[in-house]
Amino acid sequence: MSETRQVSLPDNTSGKTTLRKIRHAVSFTRGLQTETQERRIVRVFFSSPFRGLELEREELTKKYWPRLSTMCSKAGYEFVPVDLRWGITSEKTSNAGTLEVCLREVDRSDMFVGFFGQRYGWHGVDDDLLQRSFDVAASTKPWLNQYRDRSVTEIEFLHGHLNHPGDKPACFFFRDKEYDDKMLKTHKSAKNEVEASKYDPRTDGPRAEEMLGDLQQRVKDTKDTCFAFTEAYPDPQTGAKLMFEAVKRYLEQTVLADPAEAISEREKERLLHNAYYISRLGVGARREYIGGDRYLKEVDRHVLSDVEGYTRKPLLVLGDPGFGKTTLLANWLHRHQQLYPEDVVAYHFVGCTPNSSKEKNALIRLVEELMVGFDEKSSDIEQPTSDTNPSHGNTEEKPATEEASRASDEKGLQDGEDNKPGTEAPAVDDDPSKAVDDEKPITGVPVGDNKSSDANGDEKAFNTMSVAGDNPSQAGNEEKTNSEGLNAADRAPDGNEDEEPDTGTAVTNSKTSTTAANIEKKDEKKGKPPNVRSLGTYELFQKLETTLKSISESGKRAIIIIDALNKMDPTPKTRKQLYWLPTELPEGVSILVSSLTDDTSKTNELINERHWDTLVVEPMEVDDRKKMIMEMLSLRGKELTSSQVDKIIKKEQSANALFLKIFVQELCNFGDFWRLDEHLNFLLGAESTKELFAKILERLEIDFNPQDSKENTICKVMCCLLESRYGLSDHEIKELMEIPDHVWSAIFFAMEDFFIDRGGLYGFAFDELAAAVQSRYLEKEDEPRTYSKMLADYHQGKLDARGVQYQIRGHSFDRISQELPWLLQKLDDKEHLKRCLTHLGVFDGLLATHDTIIDLYAFWRSTEVSGKEMCSLYMKSLDERVAALYIQREEEYCETLSPVKDLLPTLYNIAEIIGDAGHLRHTIPILERALRYQEYAHTTEEIYENQKVADMYIELVNKLACVYCDLEMFEESEKLHKLNIEIKEKLEEKWKTYGYQIGITLNGLALLCKGQGKYDEAEKHFQRCLELHRARPGNNQRLVGASLNNIGTLLMKMKKFQEAIGYFEQTLEMYAICYFGRFHTEIAGTMNNLAVCYRNLKQMDKAEPIYEKAYNMTVNAFGDKHPEVALKLMNWGTFNLHMKNYEKSLEMFHKSFDIYKECFGDEHIQTILIMENIAMACALLNRHEEGDPYFKKAGEALHRQGRLDVSLKGLNRRMLRYYLEQDRMDDAEKLLERILNTAVDEPRYFFALAELDKTKPENERPKRPHQQTVEFAAEKYPESEDSLECMDDWFDDVDRTINLLKIGKYGHIAYINLYTKYSEQDHNKEGVQVLHAGMEMFPNEPAIYLKLAKEHAANEEDDKAVELLNKGLTFDPNDVDILTSLGEVLIKRGESETAGLHLRKALELAAEDNVKVEKIEEMLKKIT
Question: Sorting pLDDT into bands at 50, 70 and 90, what band is 1112?
């Protein structure tokens, strides 16, 4: 009869001691830094015979042990299953160490799990090797002598439980005999004796079955002291599951005993960070940091002021992937906290917790840890372990009563009159400390971006767009377009004449649907205790700086540690790299950061800009590798033979700590001991960590892909993760690939260490794994598309399932918005992408953040739709939405209710997006429709009675007025601006809060007047606007700054640059307060204006650094989509190109191109030139293929327009060389045909085209116009060295070559050199022909006669040689070479006397040339 029994840890056993021991060990993970922080291990010994239990062990190894490991690691433990099935090597067996090893492993295990089939196992008093093993073990454990006839497994059972029942938590599982009998019969029938022997008890001897039964009974008799006991489990899978459940329950009562609800969010994160870093302390039972002493000392030098060589510089730890950067920081942290417990340390290991890769989450953790740590170490009173102290920014802290909460809120609302209940105040950042990082951002652009062309007064208007709401108009934005300073490489970066002023400011939130909500969020904060997790990024940064300052002033030491900076989410283009990391550190504050060496996007900022010290982690030494292997094996109770270890160490890649650790882990995870050598050799075939991952993938396929199916589950999971944009969640993976829970869990736990969790979305933690997936599964061109299509169809299905009666803001479209448009763009599925973008739910999801809005623009650009079509598609979607809402409300309320009020924000946002995309004219019908909706939904009386309605109405009116102004529809614009002033004056009269709003409209009128050239009237409006803004109570720096800036731009337009500088400096003072510590387009715009003024005043030394700073601020601030921004990007990118910051320049050029293309189209000169800049940057990065489409498109456009003279000469040269090297002859030919006979051609290009023609069959060679021939090149570039060099290859056409020399007007040296090259190639006949041609061209040139004479003399034509030499002497009687040569020929002819005359004369003339003198003297000796 089968029996299963499970109990809790018995109180009367030392199992309770184990429980106390483990709980004590994990106490530090709950925030108590006073505890010794050392890594603990949960070791579970699994005991069974070697034969017959393979299936159970395979199931445990592949399915359950990874899950148990994950559970333990989250609690700061390492789960070690001790499996001696292959842990006893032949070496150990041969020296009789088997039994001793087994019992020692039992001793150091926390739990014992025994299981049996029907095989009793290795035993026998006559087995010499086994008895010698007993001899060795009995020397320390004499009790073994009475059990010499028992099996090794029974000895383990005795030592682990039966000798002292209950001392150690123990579980026992016996397999049902019926199963073994069935399997025995099956294999016997199949005549498979090997498999049959696994289930036949007689295999182990005649008494084996009896001895096993006796053992089972003795265990059963102690079942009350067992943690779990199962008498007859039905099959291996069930047995493995029962073992897992028993061990899991044991862990839950020990390691996981503390309830999760008792831990705060900070503590939860801290526990995970602690567990993560402790798991990286090293290898082996002692967690030894092998080979790391010198690194630890170098880190000390950057923290401890009393060590030799101390420096306050922050330290950046660099290294290749897997070299041990995390291990270094973890070990230093562990050691330092033991030695200096009074120090305040905040550490953040990126990737170890969900969302730890986000900048804001990193700031939250650092601030919380510093605040709590400082408070604990500053107080003499013992602090509680949970975060309940309000001074620490506890997220759970609430006002004591509801009345206190209300009073607190009311007190906070007294700061500004515009923040009244029911009032939608403009989203002016009245309080500089109020960050809006987590709210929908202000996406508008600096309004009134006027450009005064200061080169020659030639102005060209272009369209811009203001932000929504009551803000200044933008009118008359002028820009003179010329190429100077706009193109890289061949042009100076800052030499253009069209840097123009930035004017105006955005003063209201462009997303009206969120304005009230944002204000409400801000109001809720006022009067309450600080809540760190609710702060914006800017506020967190301020809190970080003030906390560090407080710690420093207290005399304590503060240390910030950030590991794996390279894993942080990419910094948005609108922000500066690492803006959240402090630059100025108080005394006693240290920062330690690690990153990949090649992550230059972040490390360049720290090394080059902030001048941090660096510490490079090097490859492991051989001795350290061996030690690491031994420690890892020892920890797991396993061994390898010395030859196996040597094989691993000799592998070059084992110098990489990550490679070696993964390698050994994979060996330990491999389930088949008998195939261990085979698997080791298989892994040794990996030449990199990438290839090692590929081999692990191969093993996973064997383990997890269904045997009876062709489906490659591992492939699908990995490819979908790789092809997704942000990763996939558990639910998405299981649903997308129809994977059962247990299958996905097994795969996940097997791969968990290689994934990174970003808020529930899984991606690859290692680039090498991604590369392995790419090379293993996605090598064919169509394979990535297959998985992208699978993902797109999945998300499209989710979108379709929402139906038509969805609530835009009532359902979450975030995941669909994150993935579907990106996937459709990737698939180049323009039609589906257009439908997706015009789905109003997706549209709203893409308005969530500034970065998603930028994505929205990019998606639309990829569809190549016109502004008219874009507008039409949105209007159609809006009409469908109106119809759906009518039907929905009729069904719900049984009456027709208009949805126009609900759709007003959507209409407004559509207009904003279309306008910012450069299609300003097409926003008019949308805004006019929104205005009609507004007037339909609300009466005039409501406008004057309800501030929220009033704010929406005046915002719409202002928006439309701005658009009219930008499109130079001045009459319509003026009418709306004046209407707005009339309404605002009445509202001010009633509410007393609209004075500054009147100022905003006056600013719009001023810009309108400026655009019309009415400068005096514009100045009057500007000054009145400034007066109203200065009179506004509260923080008005932003509005005042905008007014000052706009006056400055007007003065620039009037050429009053010195006066304008004063206004811009005042503007920057206002913005310094308003945007303290932040970059913003308004600051960048004002700085650009200031730079233009300095340039016009010829103060270039002042202008250049301001340009640089303005460019950086424009790139990293909240960018708009206007040509002025493109111009800054182009110039700054060009500067970086000259500085060889190619990647950075390429990024800027791409963004500039996007803007120019949308605003001006493909054929505009600015768009064309920036395309060439992109191609140049790609070429300099040796990514020619990436830049090729831009290069071709730009070149073809310039060719059509007849403007190739402005093309980049160096770029054309590079691309031609690339085409030829890649054997792309058609592209090379088209390029040559395009650029020949332009300012960017070169002589060698004509020869290159001729050579290309030669490669074609003679009947297919084109007849080139004269302007494309080499003859024309010779005419155009006379005496060109390039042409001469190219002629060297034309040996087969000497007549044409001679003709080119004549056309090119080359000197006699060219003929002689060409003759020499012919001679060197054994083309003497052609060489002589060249000399004769030279003699014809230069009949008085002795050098040619000399060369020709030598040629005849070499051919034994001495008479001709003498004739030519004598003729040469007629032109230069004192030519030593001719005299010498003539003497030599005459000696040969026997005319010694005459020869002597010539030679003696030559000797006299060559008196100072020792070589010639020696030669001549030798010749004279022959005739004397």
Answer: low
Cβ contacts of residue 892 below 8 Å, gap of 6+?
none
Residues 977, 1035, 984: CA angle, nearest 5 degrees? 25
Is 60 exceeded by the pLDDT of residue 87? no
Say how far apart CA 154 and CA 911 lie, in whole Å. Answer: 80
**pLDDT value, residue 817:** 92
What is the overall mean pLDDT for the chain? 78
Give the separation between CA 101 and CA 95, rounded to whole angstroms: 12
Is the pLDDT at 380 greater than 80? The verdict is no
**φ and ψ of 125, to 5 deg:** -75, -15
What is the H or E stretch that residue 397 is in? none
CB atoms within 10 A of CB 777: 20
Residues 1270, 1245: Cα–Cα separation, whole Å: 9
C-alpha–C-alpha distance, residues 1102 and 1325, integer Å: 67
Q: Chain centroid to CA 789: how far?
A: 24
pLDDT at 479: 26
Indicate the burial class of 1322 (C-beta count within 10 angstroms; 0-12, 13-18, 19 or more).
Answer: exposed
* Average pLDDT, integer, range 1306-1329: 83
For residues 795 and 720, what is the distance between their CA atoms, to the nearest angstrom?
A: 13
DSSP 260-296: GGGS-HHHHHHHHHHHHHHHTS-BTTTTB-TT-HHHH
Closest among 530, 557, 559 to 543, alpha carbons compared: 530
User: Pairing mode, if any, of strands 755-758 and 613-616?
Assistant: unpaired
- Distance between CA atoms of 1370 and 122, rounded to whole angstroms? 113
CB-CB contact of 503 with 1063 (8 Å): no
Query: In sequence order, which residues have a C-beta less than 8 Å from that of residue 1392 and are 6 or more positions away?
Result: 1386, 1423
- Give the list of residues 6+ apart from residue 582 with CB closer than 8 angstroms, or none: 541, 544, 545, 548, 591
User: Quick check: 88 and 101 in contact, CB under 8 A?
Assistant: yes
Single-letter amino acid code for the residue at 186: T
Whole-Å CA distances, 354 to 26, 351, 361, 578, 918: 22, 7, 9, 20, 38
Helix or strand run (H / E) with residue 1000: helix 995-1011
State residue 342 phi and psi, 5-degree precision.
-80, -10
- Kindly report, residue by residue over 213-247, the tens digit of the pLDDT: 999 999 999 999 999 999 999 999 999 999 999 99
Tokens representing residue 683 in the block: 């892994």
Rounded to whole angstroms, the Cα distance separating 338 from 331 reads: 11
Task: Tell me the C-alpha distance between 11 and 17, whole Å.
Answer: 9
User: Which two three-digit tokens encode residue 729?
Assistant: 């969640």
Contacts of 219 (CB under 8 A, 6+ apart): 114, 157, 161, 162, 172, 226, 229
Burial class (CB in 10 A: 0-12, 13-18, 19+), 969: middle
Where is pLDDT greater, at 1279 or 463?
Answer: 1279
What lies within 8 Å, CB to CB, of 132 at 6+ separation is 96
This prediction has a pTM of 0.52
pLDDT beyond 60 at 506 = no
Please, are residues 1162 and 918 in contact by the beta-carbon 8 Å criterion? Answer: no
Average pLDDT, stretch 133-140? 82
Residue 527, token pair as written in the block: 């009067």
% of the chain exceeding 70 in pLDDT: 79
Across the range 34-44, mean pLDDT stands at 54
Tokens 């290294």 belong to residue: 319
Q: What's the CA angle centered on 74, arms 71 and 78, to 5 degrees?
A: 70
137-151, 522-536, 1260-1274: the lowest-pLDDT one: 522-536
> For residue 1227, what is the DSSP state?
H
Q: Are 621 and 291 in contact (CB under 8 A)?
A: yes
Lowest-pLDDT choice from 506-515, 586-595, 722-731:
506-515
Q: Which pLDDT tens digit goes with each residue over 768-792? A: 899 999 999 998 888 999 999 999 9
